[in-house]
Amino acid sequence: MGLLAKLKELGCQLKLVQSVERTAARMPTKVATKAVTIKELMTELHAENVKLLAESPVELTIEFGKIFESAGIKIPNHGWTIEKFIKVFQSKYQTADVNEAKKSVQLWLSETNVSAEELVRDALAKDQALDAYEEFVLKKMNSRSQTRQERIAEIAKEMDKMKQELLRLEHQMQQEQDDAGKWQSRKKSYEQDITRAVDLLTNNTQ
C-alpha cells in the first residue's frame, strides 16, 4: 500500500506537526499540530513525462531521482527534502519515544525554517510519481508477458509436433533394425541351405 492510501485511511485531514521554539532551555511540553486536508497536500505531476520515462527498455534500473525529476518534482530552495529529513531523524525513529521524537521535530522545524507541510507534500508527490511510474511499467510488462505467453504456447505446440516427429523417426529406425535382423536371419538360413546343397553336389574330399 502506498503512502497516499495509508493517509486516506486516517481520514480527509492530517494533523501536521508544527514548529515551536524551545523555551527556557527545555523541550516543548506537548506536540503542536495543524489540520491540513490531503487535497491541499497533493501536487499535480507531469504524468506524460513519467510515462515516457517508463517506456525506456531499462525501466527497472532507472533511479528514483530520475523519476521524480521527470514528474516535475523540484528540490526546494532551502534544500530540505523528505529523504534528507529521513536521514537526519532516522536514529530517532528507531530509538526515541515517538512523542519525544515529534517534540524534537518541532524544534528542528523552527531552527531550519522548514514546514512539515512542505515535507509531507514532497513525500506525497514522490509517492504519487512512483505509483504512476509503476502503473506504466506494469502495463508494459503485462503486454510483454502476454506476447511471451503466446510465443511460449507456439513453442510448446512446435515442441509437441517435434516430439511426435521424434517418436515417428525412432519407431521407423527401430522397425528398420527389426526388419534388417529378420532379413539377416533369412539370409543366414538361405546361405546354410545352399552351402549344404553345394556340399552334396561336390566332392572335394581326397
Could you walk me through the main structural features you see in this protein, from its secondary elements to its overall organization?
Helix content is 68%, strand content 5%. It has 206 residues and is mainly α. The chain has a two-stranded antiparallel sheet with strand order 1-2. The protein is rod-shaped.
Layout of secondary structure:
Layout: H1 3-9, E1 13-17, E2 33-37, H2 38-41, H3 47-54, H4 64-70, H5 82-95, H6 98-112, H7 116-201
Antiparallel strand pairs: 1-2
Helix pairs in contact: 3-7
Number of DSSP E strands? 2
Q: β content, as a range?
A: under 5%
Amino-to-carboxy terminus distance: 108 Å
Specify the overall morphology.
rod-shaped
List the uncertain runs: none
Number of domains: 1
List SSEs in N-to-C order.
Answer: HEEHHHHHH
Q: Biggest sheet, open or closed, and with what strands and sense?
A: 2 strands, antiparallel
Q: Overall mean pLDDT score? A: 87
Fraction of residues in H or I helices: 55-70%
Structural class: mainly alpha
What's the Cα radius of gyration? 40 Å
Total helical segments? 7
Biggest sheet: strand arrangement: 1-2
